[in-house]
Amino acid sequence: MNLSDFIRANIDQVLDGWEQFAKGIPAAQGMDLRALRDHASGMLCTIAADLDRPETPAEQEQKSKGRAPRSAKETYSGMHGSSRETAGFSVNDAVSEFRALRAKVLKLWADSSPAEPPSARDLTRFNEAID
User: Fold this and answer.
1) Alpha-carbon gap, residue 109 to 44, rounded angstroms
2) What is the C-alpha to C-alpha distance for residues 92 and 110, in angstroms, rounded to an integer?
3) Which of 36, 67, 119, 127 is most open to solvent, judged by the fewest CB atoms within 10 Å of its CB?
């Protein structure tokens, strides 16, 4: 299964992992489920849509250098970062959430088809989208 379809099919499991990780961040103590997950679903759906979109080599190069056009992902990411800052998260705390999200998605995806190696294209595009 390609990564975009996997994300859509397993979004609840990914969000559960995000929530479990976020609960361990000191600034998250007392946050409810809605606040813990805030914009994660929107970010994941936007990332999945981005993975499905054709990309030229020139677009891929620009994106890999952080020069991609603004998208809904950036809006969700920006809102997420702002809400975390307001909640008292440090920059390291917020960045650690993205690292945990990346790790959860990739581990679940790899475990879902152990006989089938993950697509290098999907991995590259996913990493660019997360970053």
Assistant:
1) 14
2) 27
3) 67
DSSP state of 27: G
Residue 64 CB contacts under 8 Å (≥ 6 apart), including other chains? 124, 128
Alpha-carbon distance values, 115 to 1, 4, 15, 66, 125 (Å): 12, 19, 25, 33, 22
What's the DSSP call for residue 20?
H
Q: What is the pLDDT along the chain (131 residues), one digit of tens a residue?
A: 889 999 999 999 999 998 999 999 999 998 988 888 888 999 999 899 989 988 888 887 777 777 766 655 557 888 888 889 999 999 999 999 999 999 999 999 989 886 777 788 888 888 888 87
The rounded distance, in Å, linking the Cα atoms of 60 and 98 is 21
